[in-house]
Amino acid sequence: MSPTIVQNASAAHQESFPISIGEQLVQSGCVSAGQLARALEVQTKEKGVSDQKEALIGKTLIELGYISHPALLNCLFHQLTRERVAYHLDPQAETIIRFENVEKTLDGRKVLDQLNMAIPANKITAIIGISGGGKSVTLKHMVGLMKPDQGEVWVGGQPLGKLSVRALNGVRRRFSMLFQEGALFDSLNVMDNVAFPLRETTALPEAEILERVEGCLQEVNLGGMGHKYPDELSGGMRKRAALARALVTRPEILLLDEPTAGLDPIIENAIHYLMCDTFMRTRYTIVCISHAVPAIFDWCHHVVVLHRGRVLASGPSVEIRNSTDPTIKQFISGDLDGPIHVI
Q: What is the residue extent of each domain of the chain?
């Protein structure tokens, strides 16, 4: 790892995160303080966008010619790298989701076996492991879509198994989920797909809903595409539309179930950049199930390795990537020779 990155990270863990995305870009030397001030002025005066929507400052900086879109994404990735290394040096974070001795049996097979796990708040956590290891089942337990046969799942200090239906629904509103296949409604256009959760769960005026939807579409680079239907979109565009729908409710916790599944390497990389961009703008807690190994280690702070329904390892991504555990090493390398037998 670059000595410069480690040195910068040593200072980074002393900084108070989060800082605004504009400040991050200035800190990284991607734009000047004057350019940021000008972009904020344009957003406020010319576009009628308040400082509360500085999350779109990158788009304004691009439009003003201060930075290109690829350069913006690379700057955000560099900032995330600094944070990942800082987290490795000082892995202190509040726990927002906790599993205590969780067991779940499906069709006679124990999928989760005395699972103990902690998810850090305001970080990107990747859950990895071989197929059938319990990753998607774990995600469903986080939002109460499944209940453990034994044990307890805690979200923000609340035990899901002991909550009333009303209280559980309140906890669920803290989450949004991007399903593996996107789960867009084929009969609705992109605008209506993204607006769906707001229309179903809130009493917001339609004008405010449409404004928020268009803002989310812009955030995922689908501005002006609301009239299109899912079958008119590429695989990567459908993933972005599904992400916009997940973001439109402004959740605290974003769950991503295999966001890069079935995508070619270029689109997979683009989705990872989008995940980074989303985190930098929102600072949501993001939990991502992924088979994109070893690439995913570059895009998350924390990694949980599930194996046979239990946590085999959990910690900063830098630490897990360098693990000497034979099972983890085999999974990362994809080698057929090792403790995991698949043939």
A: 3-89, 93-174+251-343, 186-249
223-226's contacts with Cβ under 8 Å and 24+ in sequence apart are 225/190, 226/189, 226/190, 226/191, 226/194
Q: Which of 241, 136, 96 is nearest to 182 (CA)?
A: 241
Are 90 and 13 in contact, with CB atoms under 8 Å apart? yes
Residues 213-245: tens digit of each pLDDT:
998 998 888 988 999 999 999 888 898 999 999
Q: Which two tokens stand for residue 68?
A: 């290109």
Q: Are 249 and 198 in contact (CB under 8 A)?
A: yes
- What angle separates helix 69-89 from helix 265-282, to the nearest 10 degrees? 70
Quickly list DSSP for 152-219. Answer: EEEETTEEGGGS-HHHHHHHHTTEEEE-TT----TTS-HHHHHHHHHHHH----HHHHHHHHHHHHHH
* Domain 93-174+251-343 classification at class level: alpha beta
∠163-165-170 over CA atoms, to 5°? 80
What pTM, to 2 d.p., does this model score?
Answer: 0.89
